Amino acid sequence: xxxxxxxxxxxxxxxxxxxxxxxxxxxxxxxxxxxxxxxxxxxxxxxxxxxxxxxxxxxxxxxxxxx
Length: 67
Prior knowledge:
3-stranded antiparallel β-sheet, globular, alpha+beta
């Protein structure tokens, strides 16, 4: 890891790929969930890229029984 690499658990936003690994949710499932909730406070759309706000999504996950 170089000095410019930020550990995933310290990042504010995660790509779908990073979030998939971090939360152990399949990329396709996570992408679908994000696309269905584009106005949610845990989703950021940057051009055609979707990013996940890590801390806000952790709160969502804490309240779910199934995904």
